[in-house]
Amino acid sequence: MLQGSFSSIREAFGRTLVKLGEEDSDIIVITADVGDSTRASYFKEKFPERYFNVGISEQDMVNFAAGLSATGKKPAVVDFAMFTMRAWEQIRNSISRMNLNVKILVTHSGYSDSGDGSSHQSLEDIALMRTLPNMRVIVPADPADVIRGLPVIMKERGPIYYRMGREYSPPITNGLDYKFEIGKAYVLKDGDDLTIMGAGVVLWDALKAAEQLEKMGISTAVINLETIKPIDESTIEYYARKTGRIVTIEEHSIYGGIGSAVSEVVVKKYPVPMRFVGATTFGRSARSERELLDYYNITDKSIVNSALELIK
Amino acid sequence: MGKGGSDGIPISLEELKKLQEIAERARKNVIKMQFYDQSIHVGSSLSSIEILTTLLFRYVRESKNPTDKDWLILSKGHAAPALYAVLHEKGLIPEEELWKIQGINGLLQGHPEVYIPGIDMSTGSLGQGLSFGIGVATGIKMSNGSGRVFVIMGDGEQDEGEIWEAMTHAVARKVDNLIAFIEINGFQLDASTQDVKPKEFLHDVWKAVGWETFLCDGHDISSIVNSVEEAMKAKKPAVIFAKTLRGKGFTPIENSKKQRASPDVTRKFLFNS
């Protein structure tokens, strides 16, 4: 636990996408003028004939991809999470409604576009995307998760929203040996008194919090809820029953996001007390993503405080 | 601007008559549909009858291979009743379904859905069809297929930003297998198009950004045929501006903002026509 070095999730993403392009000539990458920033441009270097920059036009990008998929191609829309939301209605009315084989692979999610401020920080996208019929929503934890999961994502038929950050990527799953499956949650650490559930880079804080809680004698499980939709109901129910308390953490609004998704399962299967750590306001500019997570109290300390509220 | 018709009519009088008869039957069925559901968009549908008839009966080729078939995308999805009526003429939709339009147990939805026979794209939210058409046309070209893509839009629809995104995109992709129609009937939901936003510059803009542009009378099948024949020769994306009348042929609402008439008025019209 908590071993390995920090790296870049978008680098892992760009390199993995090229590898997948070598294996499948139907994969087409489409971006709205953010090829370099997302590292989609690595695909362009290798396969220029299968790479389209549609310009700064997200709505057109989404329906262009929908049209390509209708002819049997496997388009991957690569964009900033924030600006993909601009085309949410196109994603709803074309991709989800027709259940088309389009992958929406976004970077710069959460606070990861730290310097650009609130206009570029997506804290609502999981909520928006998980409401859509046919759409699956997946949030990898770190570069190792991307290398493990993206090949599975691209082979799967139908629409998937795959949400990544930018540069800040603490090691979370790199030491683990498991095969990624859509719809499955992964136990990063087992425990008996409390469960922390979340997805993305903030699982780093979850693991740190678990270490601190263990020192206090509180046996803490940490679950990587990589697939937000369809969510792994059986794992959530199992840990609700086993530990009786759940804290969720997300780099996203607590309204409609991962905490909401978990609580929808918990109230149905086995109600237990919960606490939610995540965003409640728009973001702001900062020098780094870490500064923002600290500023908005999306930290190991907040998890520990929430856990202690539940334990007392 | 190119204009069809200079070389005569490339359609036999026999075929022309046949298409006109189909269009008239479809027109009457659309008018009748409002007896069953008072909320369908009759005016916008009657505006599209001849264009849909001409494309579906003369140009759109079927194939099981998505890159060898021709695609018809009704981006102005509220004209769905017209599309259903013409697809009924093709034998794809049973007559009884026409009368169940928008009914809870009916097949035909208020706007096109791909699970309805003959529908290539689920539409209904304006501005989305052209981008999808560019994607299909690009996929066909990448696969060396023979398919062509027809997209039908309205003039009010041109307010949507996605159309402007797609307009330049089609030129960048060089999709010469794409033919777009823009119906100019002069009305959108709330008012005349000119009262809402200016539209008279549209064809100049489309031409300026690199489209081959054509004009036709959207209710004259020979004029539509002429423009499609010319558009198919274009080496770049082609757009046909089709002058149409909202409510064409249904005098109680023709060329007005009205989408439909009362059952009594409709009954009298059908009885006298």
TrEMBL record, chain A:
EC number: 1.2.7.11
Gene Ontology terms, MF aspect: 2-oxobutyrate synthase activity; 2-oxoglutarate synthase activity; pyruvate synthase activity
Boundaries of every Transketolase-like pyrimidine-binding domain copy: 7-172
Keyword terms: Thiamine pyrophosphate
InterPro entries for the chain: PDH/Transketolase (IPR051157), THDP-binding (IPR029061), Transketo_C/PFOR_II (IPR009014), Transketolase-like_Pyr-bd (IPR005475), Transketolase_C (IPR033248)
Species for this entry: Acidianus brierleyi
Assembly: Heterodimer composed of an alpha and a beta subunit.
Similarity annotation: Belongs to the transketolase family.
Protein name: 2-oxoacid oxidoreductase (ferredoxin)
TrEMBL record, chain B:
Listed Gene3D superfamilies: 3.40.50.970
Similarity section: Belongs to the transketolase family.
Role, per record: Catalyzes the coenzyme A-dependent oxidative decarboxylation of different 2-oxoacids such as 2-oxoglutarate, pyruvate and 2-oxobutyrate to form their CoA derivatives.
Cofactor: thiamine diphosphate
Coiled coil: none
CDD domains hit by this protein: TPP_TK (cd02012)
Matches recorded under PANTHER family: TRANSKETOLASE N-TERMINAL SECTION-RELATED
Gene Ontology MF terms: 2-oxobutyrate synthase activity; 2-oxoglutarate synthase activity; pyruvate synthase activity
Protein name according to UniProt: 2-oxoacid oxidoreductase (ferredoxin)
Catalytic activity: a 2-oxocarboxylate + 2 oxidized [2Fe-2S]-[ferredoxin] + CoA = an acyl-CoA + 2 reduced [2Fe-2S]-[ferredoxin] + CO2 + H(+)
E.C. number: 1.2.7.11
Keywords (A to Z) from UniProt: Thiamine pyrophosphate
Leader sequence segment: none
Subunit structure: Heterodimer composed of an alpha and a beta subunit.
Residue ranges occupied by any Transketolase N-terminal domain in the UniProt entry: 38-258
InterPro entries from the UniProt entry: THDP-binding, Transketolase_N
UniProt source species: Acidianus brierleyi
